[in-house]
Design a protein that fits this description.
- This protein has 660 residues and is of the alpha+beta class.
- Among the domains are: 17-29 and 55-107 and 129-327, Haem-degrading domain (Beta-Lactamase); 331-444 and 572-619 and 630-637, Beta-Lactamase.
- It is built from 13 helices and 19 strands.
- Strands 1-11-3-2-7-6 form a 6-stranded antiparallel β-sheet. The protein has a 4-stranded antiparallel β-sheet with strand order 15-14-17-16. A 3-stranded mixed β-sheet has the order 5-4-8.
- Strand 18 and strand 19 form a beta hairpin.
- Helix 2 (61-77) runs antiparallel to helix 5, helix 7 crosses helix 13 and helix 9 (448-455) runs antiparallel to helix 10 (457-470).
- The chain is globular.
- 62% of the residues are buried.
- Keywords: Signal.
- This is Heme-binding protein.
- Residues 1-21 form the signal peptide.
Length: 660
């Protein structure tokens, strides 16, 4: 979407929240609530199952009231009329409270990193006004979805890992982009994986704005187990933190932190205890000892300070209890032996407890000679899960915990052939692993260019940009195999990634200075119409149609359905699947370090090929790392996958992917 289009949207979005009364009273602790002493349980190292199931804990109605009351009390003390949202671990919106005077609308930040975009050059979602309640919900979902029993991440953490340099700061220009660059465009309202309130509240639920990078969102914990998230929005700006070297005095973050008191994560798993590439992540700038006395009574704020509000498609204006993750009611439960070989695996289920994505054969006989069989799909998922279970985690505490993630597999039409998870994988990885699998299969497909050209508009223009950039008139016609790391190289605002210059990747913004977390390039352009339509649906109370399932304006695959039905992803963790030289599908992994995700997809597919024969990774000579790009007089090679050194807990080998 170009500037004229999004300005029209900004003018069209006028939001009215339906005020509701109700709710009982819940008294809850005073100021200075101590942090819990519970610690994450190390995973077993020998015998029996490899993983421990998370404790089944959930937020009660009283808990939600207490969280809201505490946040409202702190917001009042800081003169911040705000909207507070609380969700459970799988994204069900448990309550939304709008304080008197809280702005109905919030503007998506026009800021760009270091101010490099000139006035009037804003693209993508920059400058768009959205419902404040939608911003609060997105923040709460982010805190819940990015966290687990082994890591607690906030929206400030998210801000740090999605920007063009990591860590983001004026003095770090020239470093590579954030490890989860692009993850903000996941959990989208158009996703065909993420559930909707009309589905009977079976998670994982969608988010109205994807994942948030605006401080003011935290996870909520009970007994060391993540049970949900809180989001606070009220300053009128939905942005990100471009400088992690200073300490912000963000009233939204202080209010959200107050809401977490009594529901904080164990200190040792907070993001600042977890380093990535030698840099500690950021959890919060606000400190608990700077909070005012906690307001523990919901009755004291419900009415005098504001009221519960309905957000169409997300909450009916009441407070409800959360569901316990791991139960059928949460939409994710432990698999049976008939569903998946490993007793450690978890699967997504519907309201009746039936698996939503059981293992099945490829559906793309109209496009490939020999689609994937059930036995082949099962072998790939089982072998990938086995690699996952042996791998040392990158983002979890304590040290030497096992990796936890989600694994998805698709055919060349984007049809889901199976989704499995480890017990405590962060929820965000479910949708993202599917995005990754579909992205690898799409960009490796011979129809990629034709599909993008058929979409027209801004999307069509990326085809010629890629062809000119690579010097290949046949690019995006299946001549090369693209992993997400490869497509991600082409999606960075600076090419090569980490070198500041005047060359942008051809799937990114046209000029590096235009980049914003709210405009990454093709990834954003593909789903902007869906986001616009969904926000209109929320604002109108359902009078206008919701976005259909299946993101993007690309044509349907034969037989219906979108090849990239939940958007694309542009950070590593996937590979395409081949039978000889014929593309037959894709596998995606998400939930831990990006190198671990890469390894599980690449090595899992290789091992499955060794087991069943006939399928495997792309031949070396057609992998995208054979592509060399001339940039300012020198040659730069694309990347394919990057496996971590010495990744296994049960094997001292260092280069486990070497020579494959």
């Amino acid at each position: 979407m170009r500037r004229g289009a999004h300005c029209c949207l900004a003018g069209a979005l006028a939001f009215a929240l339906i005020s509701c009364g109700g709710g009982g009273d819940s008294s809850g602790g005073g100021g200075g609530t101590p942090a819990p002493t519970a610690t994450p349980t190390p995973t077993p190292t020998s015998g029996g199952r490899l993983f421990v199931d998370p404790l089944q804990r959930s937020l009660t109605v009283g808990d939600v009231q207490r969280v809201i009351a505490q946040a409202v009390g702190e917001a009042q003390s800081r003169s911040l009329p705000a909207t507070i949202a609380v969700v459970d671990r799988v994204g069900n919106v448990l309550g939304v409270f709008a304080m008197t005077g809280s702005p109905a609308n919030t503007r998506i930040s026009r800021r760009t990193i270091a101010g490099r975009a000139a006035a009037g050059e804003e693209v993508g979602l920059q400058g768009v006004e959205v419902p404040t309640a939608a911003a609060a919900i997105a923040k709460a979902v982010t805190g819940a979805y990015l966290s687990s029993s082994g890591n607690a991440f906030s929206t400030r953490t998210a801000s740090q890992i999605v920007q063009e340099h990591f860590p983001p700061a004026p003095t770090t220009v020239g470093l590579e982009s954030g490890p989860l660059f692009g993850v903000q465009f996941s959990q989208l309202p158009c996703s065909d994986l993420s559930a909707r309130m009309s589905d009977g509240m079976i998670g994982p639920q969608r988010s109205p704005l994807g994942l948030a990078a605006d401080p003011g969102g935290f996870p909520l914990y009970k007994d060391g187990v993540v049970v949900g998230g809180i989001g606070v929005a009220g300053d009128g700006d939905y942005g990100f933190d471009p400088d992690t070297l200073d300490l912000d005095r963000d009233a939204e973050e202080f209010a959200a932190l107050a809401g977490t008191q009594g529901f904080t994560p164990p200190r040792e798993i907070e993001a600042d205890r977890i380093p990535v590439d030698g840099t500690s992540l950021r959890f919060r700038d606000a400190a608990a000892d700077e909070l005012g006395p906690l307001q523990g009574s919901f009755g004291a704020v419900n009415g005098p300070a504001g009221a519960l509000v309905a957000v169409f498609g997300y909450n009916d204006g009441t407070i409800r209890a959360g569901t316990a993750y791991g139960t059928a009611a949460s939409g994710i439960r432990r698999s049976t032996s008939a569903e998946f070989a490993s007793e450690d695996a978890y699967v997504l289920v519907d309201g009746a407890g039936t698996p939503r994505f059981p293992i099945r054969a490829g559906t793309d006989a109209a496009s490939v000679a020999n689609p994937l069989t059930v036995a082949e799909v099962r072998a790939v998922l089982e072998e990938a899960f086995a690699v996952l279970g042996r791998s040392r985690a990158q983002i979890r505490r304590p040290l030497d915990s096992r990796m936890q993630a989600s694994i998805s597999m698709v055919d060349t039409h984007g049809a889901i052939l199976g989704v499995v998870r480890s017990p405590d994988g962060p929820i965000f990885g479910t949708d993202v692993s599917l995005q990754k699998a579909r992205t690898a299969a799409f960009f490796s497909n011979r129809v990629a260019a034709a599909q993008m050209q058929a979409a027209g508009g801004a999307v069509a223009g990326y085809v010629q940009r890629v062809r000119s950039f690579l010097g290949d008139a046949n690019a995006l016609t299946g001549t090369f195999a693209f992993a997400d790391r490869s497509g991600g190289n082409l999606s960075r605002p600076y090419f090569p990634d980490g070198e500041v210059g005047d060359v942008a990747g051809p799937l990114s913004v046209e000029r590096p200075g235009q980049f914003s977390p709210f405009m990454t390039g093709l990834q954003t352009d593909l789903i902007l119409p869906n986001l616009v339509q969904h926000l209109g649906f929320v604002i109108s109370g359902g009078a206008s149609a919701d976005t259909p399932r299946g993101c993007t304006q690309l044509p349907d695959a034969p037989g219906g359905g979108k090849r990239i039905g939940n958007g694309i992803q542009i950070f590593p963790g996937s590979v395409p699947i081949y039978r000889g030289d014929e593309l037959v599908g894709g596998i995606g992994v998400s939930g831990d370090g990006i190198d671990q995700d890469d390894m599980v997809s690449f090595l899992g597919l290789h091992n499955a090929g060794q087991r069943v024969g006939g399928i495997g990774n792309a031949r070396v000579d057609i992998r995208a790392d054979r592509i060399v790009v001339s940039v300012n007089g020198r040659n730069v090679r694309l990347r394919y996958v990057n496996c971590p050194f010495a990744p296994f807990l049960d094997d001292p080998r260092q280069n486990v992917c070497e020579g494959l």
